[in-house]
Amino acid sequence: LQFTEEKLGQAEKTELDAHFENLLARADCTKNWTEKILRQTEVLLQPNPSARVEEFLYEKLDRKVPSRVTNGELLAQYMTEAANDFGPGTPYGKTLIKVGETQRRLGAAEREFIHSASINFLTPLRNFLEGDWKTISKERRILQNRRLDLDACKARLKKAKAAEAKAAVTP
């Protein structure tokens, strides 16, 4: 009732401290940017949406995500197979072996980067959203409910004083 009356402009609302309001606004901003950065980083690390969904499901089921071959490693495998078909002694075969080995190292570095970024960058962001932010939201709801209770009590007190004053005037 108090909330509805405040929204309709029929009841007074106790304002929170300006510094506290600023902190709440900063917390909201932090949450929004953290979500955006987290999502975009996930897209950067795994551009395939179906693979991201699969990884998400494995994570939610607390199961180990199966290791995937990176595109660089797959290209290296194709180059090595092609080099063996052409013959490792041919100039084209030798080149494919060298480039394939380089691609394999690049693919392994990419895999390590994805793993490292996931652990060292994405995990703290997720921890904030799933831990700290949930606590902030819960405490914010509790504060809002307490404020509404306070304002409702103030309104009842004001009505009681008005009725008491009216009763004192009328003999």
Question: Please, could you describe this protein's structure?
Answer:
This is SHLB2 protein. The chain is mostly helical and 171 residues long. The chain has one domain: Substrate Binding Domain Of Dnak, Chain:A, Domain 2. 83% of the residues lie in helices and 0% in strands. It has helices at 2-8, 18-45, 49-60, 71-86, 91-169. Helix 2 (18-45) runs antiparallel to helix 5 (91-169) and helix 4 packs antiparallel against helix 5 (91-169). The longest helix is centred in the last third of the chain and has 79 residues, at 91-169. The radius of gyration is 31 Å and the shape is rod-shaped. The protein starts with a helix and ends with a helix. The model has no long low-confidence stretch (mean pLDDT 89).
Summarize the amount of helix as a percent range. over 70%
- Runs in which pLDDT lies below 50 for 5 or more consecutive residues are none
**Helices and strands, in N-to-C order?**
HHHHH
User: Could you say how many structural domains there are in total?
Assistant: 1
The end-to-end distance, rounded to whole angstroms, is 33 Å
Strand content: under 5%
Write the CATH fold name. Substrate Binding Domain Of Dnak, Chain:A, Domain 2
Number of helices: 5
Instruction: Please identify, by name, the CATH architecture.
Output: Up-down Bundle
Total number of strands: 0
Class derived from helix and strand content: mainly alpha
The overall pLDDT average reads 89
Shape: rod-shaped
User: What's the CATH class, please?
Assistant: Mainly Alpha
The profile of the biggest β sheet is: none
CA gyration radius, whole angstroms: 31 Å
Organism: Grantiella picta
Domain BAR: 5-171
Subcellular location: Cytoplasm
InterPro entries: AH/BAR_dom_sf, BAR_dom, Endophilin_SH3RF
